[in-house]
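User: Last request for today: this protein with MGD, please.
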Amino acid sequence: MAIQTRKSYCRFCHNYCALEVDIEDGRAVAVRGDAGDPIYGGYTCIKGRQLPELHAHPMRLLQPHKRQADGSFEPIGSQQALDEISQRVSKIIDESGPRSVASYCGTYAFQNSAALAVAKSWHYGIGSESFYSSVTIDQPGKFVAMSRAGGWHAGGHGFKDADVVMIIGCNTIVSQYSAFGGIPPWNPVRELNEAKKRGLEVIAIDPRRTDLARRADLHLQVRPGEDPTLLSGILRVILEEGLHDKDFCENWVEGLDELHASVRQFDLDYVSQRTRVPIEQIVAAARMFARGRKGVATAGTGPDMAPRGNLTEHLVIALNMACGRVHREGDRLPNPGVLSPQRNRRAQATPPWPSYGSGPRSRVRGLGQLIGEMPTAALSDEILEPGEGQVKALLCIGGNPVVAWPDQQKTVRAMDELSLLVCVDIRISATSKMADYVLAPKLTLERADLPVLCDNWYEAAYTQYAAPVVDPPEGADVLEEWELYWEMAHRMGSQILLPGGPLAMDERPSKDDVLDLITNRKRFPLEQIKSHEGGHIYEGVEEIVGAADPDCEARIQLAPEGITAELAEVRTESGVESFSHRLISRRLRHVYNSSGQQLDAIRAKGTTNHAFINPLDLEEVGVVSGDILEITSSHASILGVAQAAADVPPGVISMAHAWGDPSIDPKEVREIGSSTNRLVSNETDYDPISGMARQSAIPVNLRPAPIR
Ligand SMILES: Nc1nc2c(c(=O)[nH]1)N[C@H]1C(S)=C(S)[C@@H](COP(=O)(O)OP(=O)(O)OC[C@H]3O[C@@H](n4cnc5c(=O)[nH]c(N)nc54)[C@H](O)[C@@H]3O)O[C@H]1N2
Ligand SMILES: Nc1nc2c(c(=O)[nH]1)N[C@H]1C(S)=C(S)[C@@H](COP(=O)(O)OP(=O)(O)OC[C@H]3O[C@@H](n4cnc5c(=O)[nH]c(N)nc54)[C@H](O)[C@@H]3O)O[C@H]1N2
Ligand code: SF4
Ligand SMILES: [Mo]
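Assistant: Here's the final one, the structure of the complex with MGD:
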């Protein structure tokens, strides 16, 4: 049979690379980057290239499965499973109230462009505040900081015309992730090389000499967890030397003097000794950053998972705002968003907005909602803690709590305690193997989607619609993540209200209907977007930044409540502890958190999450590459396969999360890796607003494992 080629985009990660898919006999046989795509230009990575294998993989669940009395799983028809799940959910609501039913939307809920909106609205419809997602264990500090400081209506400078970027603990070249002005992730090496040709200067702040740090003009090899001190030192130099944008600060900023007084306490001897960054480099970074006319500082997961992520993110805002790194009147905004509404941006500040502190509270540690979501770092406690509001049912959508949440052993106890655990997962994972029902999802090439998540990350007015290009394998009984919620609402008589209106409840709507209601204020009708096969740049979307409203009284707050006190507290710390190393998180190119570890081409790249460590440290501990280390925090121990790595400085160990299994047999660490979240406590070292536990810069000791 002839091969047919269709366009689609990859959803293995959130980068959404434009693809061409070869289809033979109704099955995808090959994928490659769409070389004609105006944004991606043919880019793909090893993970995306496995889509054909993934769709046909023997581990892939093709039917829902139900746990039996003896603990085994048996296939069950989807309508039967949905009837039973709806009945059990209704019963739990009747007995314990709507709050006892929770959803956790993990990374693959973000990859299906309808899942999050429908899940959230379903919760609203049944009156349950227990909506959780991976956002609150990712970089919650960004939301806390933005809401305290306020912002700039026309947005901050982007990468494309920046003279300088400061990238703090973000490794886009591997993660394809880039927040607020970092390296465009579509083809990061190409983007970086082109920008360097036009003169861009790059400052990387990372304990590890990463792929990005090697290409940077300046690499500050900060001690893990010491970003608040380092950024305070950098700000101190900028403000002491008067390198900030005084006009901008005078007109639009409040609290600069208080912030200056706070960072003045961070004398460079102290900063250097605590962060292990030489004084000359701190001064050079401050001058390089402030010298550029346009530029941006941005942070990733590393510093946001280390202690005081909110403060780090505040200092990032302070660096950008003190240097006036925002779009001004008359600036051209090439992409205010294609799927988003026109906003008529103005060159003015926006006031602080309350993203936390109101609404329902968590029952533990005084935590509450952040951006309308309950804090995932406390969900295991909400399940284990008896009493009014205890979570009894969990719908886990494309997530893997047992390896991703802080405190693995507590998470396992929580999954065990639930009256009902439903997972929508492509496979039997460390979490779904504990479920009562595992529902089998449709995969990427079988689904329609729009890149809602990154609509205004693109630096051109670009979007792409993916049509389903293959059917699920014959005999499969699969559904989409959002369809679970629709089917429950349909049976339970509740509503799902999307931004564009309610979903029809008598007959299941099409995916296009759902996408249309989610993106109801898009610039172009869905039919027009669908008429372009593949990605397309749209004309007439760009905006020119307008003048400030003369009555605008909003100012960016550089010293909002809590900041000066927290900086004073940091200044009193020595940074010394009784552990030899700090364990930092990282991403591996060939896997996506716990996804991909099962595929052949990926397993050929490695079957474990190595403990990367400096050769000098290896020698000191008395092991060689390939030996097994025992890694012990104040909370627990794990095993890790040692791997000498010159890019990791002494005193640091670098390991990816989301590997292994809680019931790991020590002999299996080479085959399935181990979970760094076993080392983490969510009760002793956590953020008081988001509950974010210390999931990077974890103090640990090392020794050769008793078992080799
Ligand atoms: N120590 C430490 N902990 C961390 C982090 C860290 O850096 N260090 N990072 C944190 C961050 S940033 C995040 S986002 C979280 C991630 O947390 P999670 O999202 O909970 O973890 P994942 O491993 O990404 O889980 C994805 C699950 O989706 C399944 N899956 C794969 N494809 C599909 C699909 O097409 N559909 C469906 N329905 N399911 C699918 C996979 O089998 C897997 O079980 O972890 C956090 N935890
Ligand atoms: N290939 C691949 N891509 C992924 C993922 C994956 O698992 N694999 N995961 C996805 C997810 S869920 C997310 S949220 C994004 C995250 O995207 P990124 O934030 O870019 O994640 P990382 O690549 O882990 O980069 C974090 C960097 O922080 C450094 N770091 C660790 N601790 C500290 C610290 O205390 N201070 C400083 N300054 N740096 C520190 C680490 O050395 C690392 O280089 O990536 C996504 N993309
Ligand atoms: S970077 Fe790789 S995994 Fe991510 S969308 Fe592109 S091809 Fe897929
Ligand atoms: Mo993430």
